[in-house]
Amino acid sequence: MDVARAAAAVIAERTGTPRHDVALVLGSGWGQAGDLVGETLASIEQDEVPGFARASVAGHSGVMRSVAIGETGRRALVYGTRTHYYEGRGVRAVVHAIRTAAAAGCSTVVLTNGCGGLRPEWGPGTPVLISDHINLTATSPIEGATFVDLTDLYSSRLRAVAREVDPGLDEGVYVQFRGPHYETPAEVRMAGTLGGDLVGMSTSLEAIAARQAGLEVLGISLVTNHAAGVSDQPLSHDEVVAAGQAAAQRCGRLLADIVGRI
């Protein structure tokens, strides 16, 4: 939290505003969403802020932005990338952006990602609300005897707001694996047996840190491909990027409308 407070101070200085209201973490396929939320008032290279690093995944942007949320007078802190657990920088680095958002004054965080879908009816380009998660990373961002309740971690209130924007949104349980390799068909079947609907390599650790920091969490996945074994096609990151680009306008508009109502 000391590093997060130092980062928040730099963000306040560079953006000219003492606080932000909502944080957005833009995962694979969500890169254009920040453009549709509102006018970008300031941009900062993330590696110029304490605790942050350059983007390491193709299709992500290493720039954070301060964006006006329509005409509301509120500000969104938009992260163009995230640190993934598989990068080997440790779990503190993974959740640093979330703790910085809390230190910057945010009360809400919207976590987005690109993921594999277990339901055949969810084709590439389908946005799905996250109702809960299963954390298979074998770690937690919380250290010590700090017992945090994760009931309704993915806010039912915010999911209701999202369905006001798009009543057709489905929801499902997100399963985070460590990565960076994709899941095997057997692991995908295991995830389904455990109650999972979506598989990926991010989000759950960030959500836990957000709850610890007192932030309300909305999670939205973009199904970029069928998970291993659901279809007979091999998996590739190029497919993830292509599906995200194809769905960019729809997902960006959806996210902008949701943020405007929060």
TrEMBL record:
Residues that bind a purine D-ribonucleoside: 183, 225
Gene3D superfamilies attached to this UniProt entry: Nucleoside phosphorylase domain
Keyword Transferase: yes
Pathway(s) where this gene product acts: Purine metabolism; purine nucleoside salvage
NCBIfam families in alphabetical order: PNPH-PUNA-XAPA, PRK08202.1, PUNP
Subunit structure as annotated in this protein's UniProt entry: Homotrimer.
Reactions catalysed, as given in the entry: a purine 2'-deoxy-D-ribonucleoside + phosphate = a purine nucleobase + 2-deoxy-alpha-D-ribose 1-phosphate
Keyword Transferase: yes
PANTHER family, per the entry: METHYLTHIOADENOSINE/PURINE NUCLEOSIDE PHOSPHORYLASE, PURINE NUCLEOSIDE PHOSPHORYLASE-RELATED
Entries under InterPro entries matching the protein: Nucleoside_phosphorylase_d, Nucleoside_phosphorylase_sf, PUNP, Purine_phosphorylase
GO function term, MF aspect, one: purine-nucleoside phosphorylase activity
Family: Belongs to the PNP/MTAP phosphorylase family.
EC number(s) given by UniProt: 2.4.2.1
Chain positions recorded as phosphate binding sites: 28, 60, 82-84, 114, 202
Organism: Janibacter melonis
GO cellular component terms, A-Z: cytoplasm
Single Gene Ontology BP annotation: nucleoside metabolic process
Residue ranges of every copy of the Nucleoside phosphorylase domain listed in the record: 22-259
Function in brief: The purine nucleoside phosphorylases catalyze the phosphorolytic breakdown of the N-glycosidic bond in the beta-(deoxy)ribonucleoside molecules, with the formation of the corresponding free purine bases and pentose-1-phosphate. Cleaves guanosine, inosine, 2'-deoxyguanosine and 2'-deoxyinosine.
Keywords on record: Glycosyltransferase, Transferase
Name used for this protein in its record: Purine nucleoside phosphorylase
